[in-house]
Amino acid sequence: xxxxxxxxxxxxxxxxxxxxxxxxxxxxxxxxxxxxxxxxxxxxxxxxxxxxxxxxxxxxxxxxxxxxxxxxxxxxxxxxxxxxxxxxxxxxxxxxxxxxxxxxxxxxxxxxxxxxxxxxxxxxxxxxxxxxxxxxxxxxxxxxxxxxxxxxxxxxxxxxxxxxxxxxxxxxxxxxxxxxxxxxxxxxxxxxxxxxxxxxxxxxxxxxxxxxxxxxxxxxxxxxxxxxxxxxxxxxxxxxxxxxxxxxxxxxxxxxxxxxxxxxxx
Length: 266
Known about the structure:
globular; 0% strand; MetI-like fold; mainly alpha
């Protein structure tokens, strides 16, 4: 276990340590300094790329969550098993395809569509949004559909018998039950979009660059120590987010236990 953890985290530890190296050399550690952090905070292109990544991740995950949730609902209502299995197999293609195949195929599709319509430069913000939404949808379906399978059908039938319309029964009965799956799909879509490089590389344009693309362009020929600082900030942000999620989950679990104890005593 120690060897495994060393292989996993030693490179990250080295990256964090050398992000504070003022000399900017890997051969020696001259002096502890925040010089490279000051450089990255002065870099407007880095913050512009971060803003583009956050916009793309939030928008694409939200669109994919809405589309994927209603797709899972449609699959749940579908009575023909063979047709449902075929649609599920087709939906899972973006997950099974290598990213480079998906990226190249989307690029060719966008270029061909633009040439037919007569657009000048087809690649950019809109094409990246479409591409990220497309590869996020299967993950949302994969998260939401099991919740439909676990749900007690008699609850929906009871709501319909009590006068609810199908839409009202969905929002009052089914939606609260599948909400954990929706949230899980939303978070997964957000992280996949924020982390994606290969597909973004093929459908992007020079005027719209995400953070992974910016980091790649900065480290393609020579690694700059400002990228060490940027990577350290990303690692710390992810660590902080994980701690908040874990503490929030533990806090909610303790509240539920205390509530059950009070009810049992009462």
